């Protein structure tokens, strides 16, 4: 208030205040600028200086006015700009905007040698939360942070952690200041072990012994990820940084960007592409992060402190493929982004390829024997190995380096690990253990046996395999060895009805497998679910029965629309029928409904990613249409 501001100004004038913290927004006010003109300021520090740059992950326009205000107050005052997450482009912007002359650069290494980096697939909300519980219970009496994008999810996850005996609390901007302060204090004083938070939490929190940072949702940029994981292990002891990745999360971020101005959308898309590349890379994650910030690093020095180095993927000999890609970049005059290059090399007849007459080029489609995933990996690895570089000022145009041009003329053998494909069985089965604390590992032999049994059961009952049990459900069975119908109810996506209808053959197989292999069941890791979660599901079922619009249902059960669709998918996957014909008949044209339904009839799985890819060029079909039709299809098939 005005009285407090007056007291602060008096303290400054009387030279009692030696250091003043002020937001750029406050400094822009004319009366404050006039006040500081008459104060003997000796030094200005600009913290979080990456906010100056539009290329930074947290751009704030007011930061770009700091130099103008300094010019009015005292243009000769010394300035220091500080940031922990600035790429070379962002550093350049900071220097230019603050008009720093005769400056000294101090750049410390970005390498946090004691942090273990890992990415795990997220198949469903329930599966990911179960995994988080197991990770945390495997590290008892340690502090950690779980980062989540939505406020509702922070509360959901904190609630599940609490019923599993973990001292946890939700933290987000929707809480009042007093509550947020108490939660922070409780965390620092170890009254709470785990904070489930949006990005509102962490700024200014300097707790040295945070042992894990888990990202339930992938952040919007590498900078965000690096800053948030950087809150782990500040005491130098080994700590874990585990991120869960789902392509559906990326689709949500893309949906959020659609209403942004074009320039902001383009920039955000580039930042998002980099975090996607990080999650999918098969190379050393530490090398990827450091390369992004302009620091050279050899994967051999990682010391198996990331999942890819601890559990390396098979390497492929790709000399010819890299040479082909470099030749294409050169032949197309270094004017294309990654997506266009992948379309070109795979011979995809897109509108862009036709408009630029690329389809008649002699190199067009030369790599069509490999899929898009492969060529994305080739380009990313070429950037990591300095054959190519991404020109961020030209919206991600890919260009050749001198090393790349030399390679075209005189190629030599190159081996690279391929990127992760989290829809494949191989990546679904990957479990990395470090220090023996990653929880129970998936039993791959049993998993494959259960898949075979599911195939046979599906054939005999004339249904799709995933109608019986999803892959995440089989993974849980292969980890926790359920031997009764009651045990089955702890498995991801398995209701009592589904357990009773399909469960017994699977229970019999698991019992036999346990006896033959003398396996001890990990009963300590069964995850308890929140009791009132069933109230939400019951509420959804009742509302659907009354044919209430889904938007109104979402409001009534306190979910956003995407979360409602997730809950509805979980309901029908567990064998409960939901008749949403009343809603989709109003929203989706009959011909489109038939096309999507026919697709799922023929599809090998109910993967949304596969379905989105199938219909990606049809402008009349939205992602929500596909999700709704999947819910209808599973409801029909399971009943």
SSE diagram, text form:
Blueprint: H1 2-13, H2 24-27, H3 30-37, E1 44-46, H4 66-74, E2 79-81, H5 88-98, E3 115-121, H6 125-137, E4 143-147, H7 151-163, E5 168-171, H8 177-188, E6 194-197, E7 210-215, H9 222-229, E8 239-245, H10 247-257, H11 262-280, H12 285-292, H13 307-310, E9 315-317, H14 319-331, H15 338-345, H16 351-355, H17 372-384, E10 388-391, E11 397-400, H18 402-409, E12 415-417, H19 425-428, H20 444-461, H21 465-468, H22 471-480, H23 485-488, H24 496-517, H25 533-545, H26 550-556, H27 561-573, H28 581-587, H29 590-602, H30 608-614, H31 623-638
Parallel strand pairs: 1-2, 3-8, 4-6, 4-7, 5-6, 7-8
Antiparallel strand pairs: 9-12, 10-11
Task: Describe what this molecule looks like in 3D.
With about 650 residues, the chain is α/β, with parallel strands linked by helices. It has five domains: about 1-100, P-loop containing nucleotide triphosphate hydrolases (Rossmann fold), CATH 3.40.50.300; about 115-255 and about 290-295, P-loop containing nucleotide triphosphate hydrolases (Rossmann fold, 3-Layer(aba) Sandwich), CATH 3.40.50; about 315-415, Winged helix-like DNA-binding domain superfamily/Winged helix DNA-binding domain (Arc Repressor Mutant, subunit A), CATH 1.10.10.10; about 440-525, Orthogonal Bundle (DNA polymerase, domain 1), CATH 1.10.150; about 535-639, Arc Repressor Mutant, subunit A, CATH 1.10.10. Helices cover about 50% and strands about 10% of the residues. β10 and β11 form a beta hairpin. α10 packs antiparallel against α11 (about 260-280) and α15 packs across α17 (about 370-385). The N and C termini lie far apart (about 65 Å).
């Amino acid at each position: 208030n005005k009285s407090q501001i007056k007291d602060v100004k008096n303290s400054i004038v009387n030279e009692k205040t030696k250091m003043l913290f002020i937001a750029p927004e406050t400094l822009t006010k004319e009366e404050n600028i006039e006040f500081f003109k008459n104060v003997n300021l000796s030094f200005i520090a600009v913290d979080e200086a990456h906010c100056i740059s539009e290329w930074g992950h947290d751009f704030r326009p007011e930061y770009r006015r700091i130099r103008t205000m300094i010019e009015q107050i005292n243009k000769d005052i010394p300035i220091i700009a500080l940031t922990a997450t600035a790429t070379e482009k962002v550093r350049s912007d900071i220097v230019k905007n603050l008009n720093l002359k005769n400056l000294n650069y101090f750049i410390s290494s970005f390498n946090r040698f004691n942090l273990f980096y890992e990415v795990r697939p997220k198949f469903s909300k329930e599966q990911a939360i179960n995994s988080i519980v197991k990770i945390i219970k495997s590290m008892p009496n340690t502090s950690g942070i779980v980062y989540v994008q939505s406020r509702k999810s922070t509360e959901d996850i904190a609630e599940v952690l609490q019923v599993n005996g973990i001292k946890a609390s939700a933290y987000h901007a929707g809480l009042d200041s007093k509550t947020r302060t108490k939660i922070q204090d409780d965390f620092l004083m170890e009254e709470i072990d785990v904070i489930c938070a949006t990005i509102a939490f962490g700024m200014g929190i300097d707790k040295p012994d945070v042992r894990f940072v888990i990202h339930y949702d992938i952040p919007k940029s590498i900078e965000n990820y690096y800053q948030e994981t950087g809150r782990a292990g500040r005491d130098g002891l080994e700590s874990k940084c585990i991120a869960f990745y789902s392509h559906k999360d990326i689709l949500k971020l893309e949906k959020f960007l659609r209403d942004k101005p074009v320039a902001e959308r383009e920039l955000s898309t580039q930042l998002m592409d980099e975090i996607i590349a990080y999650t999918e890379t098969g190379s050393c994650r530490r090398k990827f992060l450091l390369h992004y910030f302009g620091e050279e690093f050899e994967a051999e020095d990682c010391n198996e402190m990331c999942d890819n180095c601890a559990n390396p993927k098979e390497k492929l000999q790709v000399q010819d493929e890299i040479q082909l890609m470099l030749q294409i970049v050169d032949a197309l005059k270094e004017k294309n982004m990654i997506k266009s290059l992948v379309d070109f090399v795979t011979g995809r007849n897109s509108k862009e390829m036709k408009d630029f007459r690329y389809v008649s080029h002699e190199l067009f489609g030369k790599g069509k024997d490999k899929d898009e995933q492969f060529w994305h990996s080739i380009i990313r690895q070429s950037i990591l190995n300095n054959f190519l570089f991404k020109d961020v000022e030209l919206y991600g145009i890919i260009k050749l380096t001198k090393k790349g041009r030399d390679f075209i003329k005189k190629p030599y053998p190159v081996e690279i690990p391929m990127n992760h494909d989290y829809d494949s069985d191989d990546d679904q089965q990957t479990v990395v253990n470090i220090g023996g604390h990653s929880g129970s590992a998936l039993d791959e032999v049993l998993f494959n046996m259960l898949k075979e049994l599911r195939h046979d059961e599906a054939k005999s009952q004339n249904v799709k395999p995933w109608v019986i049990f999803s892959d995440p459900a089989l993974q849980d069975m292969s980890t926790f060895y359920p031997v009764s119908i009651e045990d089955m109810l702890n498995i991801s996506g398995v209701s009592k009805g589904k357990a009773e209808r399909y469960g017994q053959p699977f229970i019999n197989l698991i019992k036999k497998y346990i006896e033959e292999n003398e396996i001890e069941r990990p009963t300590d890791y069964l995850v308890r679910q929140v009791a009132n979660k069933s109230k939400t599901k019951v509420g959804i079922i009742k509302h659907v029965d009354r044919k209430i619009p889904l938007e109104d249902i979402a409001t009534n059960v306190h979910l956003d629309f995407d979360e409602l669709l997730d809950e509805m998918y979980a309901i029908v996957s567990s064998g409960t029928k939901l008749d949403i014909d009343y809603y989709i008949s109003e929203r989706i044209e009959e011909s489109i409904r038939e096309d999507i339904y026919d697709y799922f009839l023929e599809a090998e799985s109910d993967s949304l990613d596969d379905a989105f890819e199938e219909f990606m060029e049809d402008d009349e079909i939205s992602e929500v249409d596909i999700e709704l039709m999947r819910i209808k299809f599973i409801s029909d098939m399971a009943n």
